Amino acid sequence: MTFRLTPPPDEPEPEDLTLSITGVQARPREVEAGEPDPSRLELRLGTTRGEIKALLDVCEGQTGALITCSGAMGGEHEVRGPADSVYQRLAEQLPAQGVSVLRIHYRIAGEFEECVLDLLGACSFLSGVGAERIILAGHSFGGAVVIKTAQIMPQVAGVISLSPQLFGTRQVEEMQKPLLLIHGTADAILHHMASEDIYERANDPKKLVLIPDGGHGLAEDPETVMSEMHQFVHEHAGPQ
Predict the structure, then answer these.
(1) Which of 111, 116, 167, 193 is deepest in the core (most CB within 10 A)?
(2) What is the pLDDT of residues 166-208, one digit of tens each?
(3) What's the gap between Cα 27 and its chain centre?
(4) What's the structural domain count of the chain?
């Protein structure tokens, strides 16, 4: 698969970036102290640009899915998420409610175009195993990665952007997908005006949720974040 990451008109044209999936390895993960669970998998997606590691929690027989990604630093937060580990909590709940969850590790955290390719590869993998409606969720740097990815990938049914940066969102009006933005009003890393700016430029349907006194990690009101994300995922990728 070949993707062109088209820049705004006033920016230089990048070289084509190509990522092809060359193989998939999967093994069941142990759940706490129990036996490995075949519905909870550790994945390694081999690609022509390196290996994408991910955790997949499967709902058999349904075609909706959520893919999550982190900020620019990567690390533990890639699979746990902000707002009191909201990605992990969703992965524990959504498969029983009809939605699979794929939580990815970036190959090269902080490299915008490479991280977009990671998400495109993850979308392609899920589409290949039957996903038809995919929600993307990203935090901070990842909040822009998911917007850019949704511009390119037709299987994306909606986007959740948490405390996003502005870089990478200049063409958000081309996304043409439902958008949920969540930002804290006391974010000292990325001001909530970033989400307000993205919101103003995005097409409907769109929603902006501001968390009073919320910081960059949205830890001050994790239940509102969880509730908003849960509702959005079910609305756009839940069982039909």
Answers:
(1) 116
(2) 999 999 999 999 999 999 999 999 999 999 999 999 999 999 9
(3) 22
(4) 1
